[in-house]
Specification:
The protein is of the alpha+beta class. Helix content is 31%, strand content 23%.
Amino acid sequence: MHRYRTHTCGDLRRDHVGETVRLSGWVHRKRDHGNLLFIDLRDHYGMTQCVIETDGAQFPGVEAARPESVVTIEGPVVARSSETVNANVPTGDVEVRIAEFSVLSAAETLPMPVFGDVDYPEDVRLRYRFLDLRREEMQRNIVLRSKIIHSIRTRMVEGGFTEFQTPILTASSPEGARDFLVPSRLHPGEFYALPQAPQQFKQLVMASGFDRYFQIAPCFRDEDARADRSPGEFYQLDVEMSFVTQDDVFEAIEPVIHGVFDEFTDRPVTQAPFPRIPFAQAMLEFGSDKPDLRNPIRNADATAAFANSEFKIFREQIAKGAVACAIPAPGAGAKPRSFFDKMIGFAQENGAKGLAYVIFEGGAGKGPIAKLLSEDEQAQIRELAGVGDGDAVFFTCAAQGDAERLAGLVRTRAGEELDVIEKDAFRFCWIVDYPMYEYDDKAKKIDFSHNPFSMPQGGLEALESKYPLEILAYQYDIVCNGVELCSGAIRNHEPATMVKAFEIAGYTAQDVEDRFGALFNAFQYGCPPHGGLAPGIDRIVMLLADEPNIREVTLFPMNQQAQDLLMGAPNTVSPQQLRELNIRLSGEADKRLQEKAEKA
């Protein structure tokens, strides 16, 4: 008999009755039933009920064992009586009579329980993550993550892709977030950077003659945490392909994304090809480039209907360049006045002065502004918004970006309040035709709006002849249920086009050579047209696990302050280490460390 176990805690069934078995695992919980003491023994594979009578030779040891102690139990498998069968667990038809019992590792009093559904504070869960991970839900999430990654890897290989590993220590480059810098001991005063993404390396893989690359890649960005974004590090399915158009990339990745979601959920999943929505249309209809297509509400441009209306507030703003957005509210005509007041309050909480609306019943509109709109203007609104009798329409009016943003928020709230959002489904789309550039109000300059390595639509000619903010790029995102899963682009592989693209954003040709020298140099020696994308592994798992926070699907996450409470990172290092790296802390840093030490 094996020293620790003949079976796992998830193995035993009725056909094992009569066998003597040995199990090892954690004491999940104990239950005292007078003359009987029950232990639920747990391991990674399941749970088995074990029982001993109070006069049994091993009873004192069993009684003394604390929850989460690791123990070995040996004894015969017996069938449970019909009234004690537990249909909720696979091993529920049997139990093990404890004949031998030994403690492999005794547990102290627990700082948080593993058994039960007690919602402990995040700092406790992260500090004792090894306990938190023992819980059934966390075990399920982390195993799901592993299975999803395996499925993705298998699908990519079957699609003709080859997996490569790119460097972790590399050069700093502007990728849109702060780099994590690593000081060089051999080159004083110089630094490596952890890659924000393998962007340049995967393009160099294409320049090296490989055709279809992928990698489950770790990425590092010094940015703040959000519910759907870990601080510091994350993983992505990094993909690049040679001799491809945008359509080719879509056709290659859609079967992978659809297949993975279809494999791991019973919910309806958007069939390929996924809908393609231009960025400008997404901003108008959804107020976001991350639209949740489960919400059937589609906003519309109602500027023309108000431009000459008697509604003076809107008319005067439109004359100054503002736009009016219409947000349909299907069935809202039957709602009480409190519903409309609530929606107005929501808009005000999000920066609006108010929220106009019209209720359509019969042939005429009702509501505070209805009398200020002619029959023709009301008819125009009905047609634009696609509404009929019994529906209402809300309106925002402001500068285009502000009006669309607020309309998007109102759309989402209206969908929730009216209960029209499709439940238990995964709805995908591509957002395409992103602007190549945007105006940075803080820096007072034109900058890249998306990926700086993207190919502009129209190539070099467009860069030389068009107003920069009118240039579109071959850039695209995959969005699922309002969550951005990935970004990608057809790359700019032409040296002259690359220099011009960066010149518009304020970089000189020398800047390009200094910052992206390897890539720029590779383009001088024959580089194929190429493109790719990078779906986020963590967000895919978060959606499939139906978890609202990415930390629930990450093995050892940091908290929102980018601290690893389990390992105590970030931490201080010795003066000797700093000297080896030629680093001297500033006076302010020294002061903060002393204050931290005093508090500790």
